[in-house]
Amino acid sequence: MGEAALEALILMEDGPRADPAALEQGLTLLRKLGLENVARRTALHILLTRADG
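Now predict its structure.
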């Protein structure tokens, strides 16, 4: 699980500037690991950060 979680974080490391496909992969991986709450909070944070510009 640790290696997969690290992979998800690497995919999303650029946050709002990351490639949308990489964000989707990272969030999906978190969900598959049973980290639904973390994936939702991460997605919300990215959306709010993008809105700020």
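The helical segments are 2-11, 20-32, 36-52.
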